[in-house]
Amino acid sequence: MECRHLLAPAAAGLLLVAGARARADDAVGTRTLQVAGGDFPALVMVVPGEQAGFGPDVLPGCDRIRARRLDELAPGWRTRVARVELDCEDTLADDARDALTAVTARAMVVPDRVQMAGQPVAEVRLMDSQRWGDHQYVVDAPYATAAPALRRFIEDTCRQRTLAQEMPPGSCTMVEADAGFYLPRDDAGGIWIHADPDDANRTLYVEAWAD
């Protein structure tokens, strides 16, 4: 009996703390998340395997890849994503020599919960394989509206990073390319802004690389 009396207040305290944390998470989730690029949430998980390989070029097959549940997303995204979709294909590279695992994950964002450069983000798309990566924020605004704000934001962020890291001054000016704008990061890829080819009312912010 005494044990129950001692444990009851402790249990009640734990419930109060858990409730407070849940309410705090809900309150945070109602605010708009500002994304800046390079901060894409992880949308898939790898199921452990007995003969799993290791290394930067090792990607498991589709049988070991699944979409994350909402409660498995990063804390800032759990209340801002409506659902996660996954498409995975075990295929071959263009030269038909190497096996590839092509993963496309999409997160549908709750309206008015995520912004980039003041523009609403409607979707996150992550496309990856052993030979390429293509990560996108889908902005819910036409190119003519979103592109100037995104371009200004990207160039300002580039200049701030250059100053903060005391790097040699480089070009932070996006150039026109493929009916959009492009900022190279290295020899493998860079940042693009262009209209969504599938929806004229949306604009894509893209970070991509290819081997």
Sequence-ordered SSE layout with sheet pairings:
Layout lengths: L1 H29 L2 E2 L9 E3 L18 E3 L13 E12 L6 E11 L4 E3 L2 E10 L3 E8 L3 H22 L10 E3 L2 E5 L4 E8 L2 E12 L1
Parallel strand pairs: 1-6
Antiparallel strand pairs: 2-3, 4-5, 5-7, 6-7, 7-8, 8-12, 9-10, 10-11, 11-12
Which descriptors would you attach to this protein?
two-stranded antiparallel ribbon; 2 helices; 211 residues; alpha+beta; 24% helix; disordered N terminus; ten-stranded mixed beta sheet
Count of alpha/pi helices: 2
Radius of gyration: 21 Å
Number of domains: 2
Unreliable runs: 1-26
Output mean pLDDT. 83
The proportion of residues in beta strands is 35-45%
Q: What global shape is seen?
A: globular
The strand count comes to 12
Please state the structural category: alpha+beta
First and last CA, distance: 68 Å
The proportion of residues forming helix, as a percent range, comes to 10-25%
Characterize the biggest β-sheet.
10 strands, mixed
| Succession of helices and strands | HEEEEEEEEHEEEE
What does it look like?
With 211 residues, the protein is α+β, with helices and mostly antiparallel strands. The protein has helices spanning 2-30, 143-164, and strands spanning 33-34, 44-46, 65-67, 81-92, 99-109, 114-116, 119-128, 132-139, 175-177, 180-184, 189-196, 199-210. The protein has 2 domains: 1-30; 32-210, no CATH class. It is built from 2 helices and 12 strands; from the N terminus they run αββββββββαββββ. A hairpin with a 2-residue loop joins β6 (114-116) and β7 (119-128).
